[in-house]
Amino acid sequence: MKRKLLGMRIIPAYGEAEEIFIRIQERAPGSQIGEMASLALADHYFDRAEMVNAAEAYDLFLLNYPQSLHREEAMLRLIKSSLATFRGPQFDPTGLIDAAQRIKMYRQEFPASAEKIGAEALLVRIDE
User: Is the distance from CB of 11 to CB of 3 less than 8 angstroms?
Assistant: First the structure.
C-alpha cells in the first residue's frame, strides 16, 4: 500500500515492505511465514527488475528452504535473474557462469521440466 500525503495514498512504500519481509525472515526462520516472506521479497525484486537483488534473494530462499514446494519456481526465477545480470561480452560474465551452474542443477532435480524449457539450448547459448 502507498503512504498517505495530504490524505491521498500517492507515495510508494517499497522500502517499508522490504524491511517488513526481511524482519519476518529474521524473526521466524524455518517457519512457513518466513518462507512466504522470503519468496515474496524475491518476487518483489524480480517484478521490479532488480535482478541482482532478486538473484541473491532467490539464492537465500533455496538455501534456507531446500524442501519448499516452491523450489522449482524459485530455481527458474534464479536462472532468469542470473541471465539478466549479464550486460554484454565486454562486462563481467559472472551472471552467465552462475546461470549455467543453476541450469545444470535444475536439470538434475527436474529433468522433465528442464527438457520442457529447453535447458540444453540455453546451455549452448551461454557457452557461445
Answer: yes
Tell me the torsion sign for CA atoms 116, 56, 81, 16.
positive
C-alpha cell at 28: 521466524
- How far apart CA 25 and CA 35 sit, in angstroms, is 7
Each residue of 43-60: pLDDT tens digit?
A: 999 999 999 999 999 999
CB 78 within 8 A of CB 59: yes
Q: Which residues contact 59 (CB under 8 A, 6 or more apart)?
A: 78
Give every CB contact of residue 10 below 8 A, 6+ residues apart in sequence: 2, 4
pLDDT band (50, 70, 90) for residue 81:
very high
- Maximal C-alpha separation, the chain: 55
Strand-pair partners of 56: none
**Scanning the structure block, which residue is given the C-alpha cell 511465514?**
33
Q: Letter for the amino acid at 39?
A: L
